[in-house]
Amino acid sequence: MDELIASGGVSPTPDRETTDGHDAPGSAVSEGPVPEGPVPIGSLIFADELPDGVVVADEVGRIIVFNRVAARLTGLDPAEVTGKFVFDVLPLCDDDGRDWWVYADPYHGLPTRTRHPERSLCLADGTEVLVSIGYVRERDLNHGASRSCTVRRLVISLRGAEQRERLERSRAELVSTVAHELRSPLTSVKGFTATLLNKWGRFTDDQKRVMLETVNADADRVTRLITELLDVSRIESGRMEVHRQLVDLPDRARKIIAGRVAAGDAEDRFRLEVHGGLPETWLDADKIDQILGNLVENAVRHGAGIVTVVVEPARMDGEATLPPAVDLGVPDAASVSVRDQGEGISPEVAPRVFRRFWRGKPRGGSRRGQHGGGTGLGLYIVKGLVEAHGGTIGVQCAPGGGAEFRFIVPAGTVAG
């Protein structure tokens, strides 16, 4: 938008008139050959290629540019509106129904004004658009280049409000969900601590231990939620750092399984399969542990039967390598699959499992089902961590039934 205003060449200044007395709409067709070399972004040749709607009015308010995106947002035909007064074509009103053209008075307002920041306004049919406006003015050379005066052109940028509405809804849902997730454990912590403080002598040591263990578990839950929210923030802002080192994927999988067994899960609940020919993988060990831990926990919580972790060579195109008898050279990736023997995930639900706050139904026998299946951020974070390594992840039906989450990470050196 700034370049468009600053270029001083948004359109050739109309110096000829049509038979009806209006300025010729030079924006519609460019006569003569396209000039060689760089063309300013403000050139009308590129007006329809701009991502936002652009409307340009001349010194008296007649439209000289009305690009394709502006036509789509307003439902108007550029050929019909070119040459008409902009305040008739775009009757912009604010939320209170006030006419923006009347109270802003762009052509007769402050002579030092250079732009109006983006704000939400409504068209005549009630359609909400995000509007920002810039001025191209004549310079008063007698009083220095810093003094502005007559408006030569008014440059109006239009954007649809749908994306902002989606973002606001997403933020509102995030705040609501986080508040709910925090309220439950904090209520528990407050209740048990208040009870212990007020009636300490009335409880046996075993009763005190149960209440303190509950407080400790709820505090861990709050800590985990805050940690996950920080991970979400880093993923969405692109600030997730990956500290690469040589990582043995089978060894990391064994570590995660051993941790589950030490926490009380049956040892025969887990199986690890490692295929030969694995390439070297330079990954962030802590984040790989987080990925594997979340996927295994998800299989235990929502699946059934044996949880199988399969580590095998792969290609970044998503295909597992063929048997060793087929010489494919060195594989360029490694894949890890986590399978369970539960009900699986239906194809209709599969596209949603990696979204924020998606929750599957916890299996009745899950040790951690009392918290409604977790925060709903685990798989979203897993996807972000895999992609931060340059990998991919997906979900499908496991060969023996149940769900299979499979991620692929590229092989390479520490520099790659």
Q: Can you put this structure into words, describing what you see?
A:
The N terminus is likely disordered. The protein is elongated. With 416 residues, the protein is of the alpha+beta class. It has ten helices and twelve strands. The chain has a five-stranded antiparallel beta sheet with strand order 2-1-5-4-3.
Layout of helices and strands, plus pairs?
Layout: H1 2-6, E1 53-57, E2 63-66, H2 68-74, H3 78-81, H4 86-89, H5 100-104, E3 115-122, E4 128-139, E5 148-160, H6 162-199, H7 205-237, E6 245-246, H8 249-262, E7 270-274, E8 282-283, H9 285-302, E9 307-314, E10 333-339, H10 378-388, E11 392-397, E12 403-410
Parallel strand pairs: 7-9
Antiparallel strand pairs: 1-2, 1-5, 3-4, 4-5, 6-8, 9-10, 10-12, 11-12
Helix pairs in contact: 6-7, 7-10, 8-9, 9-10
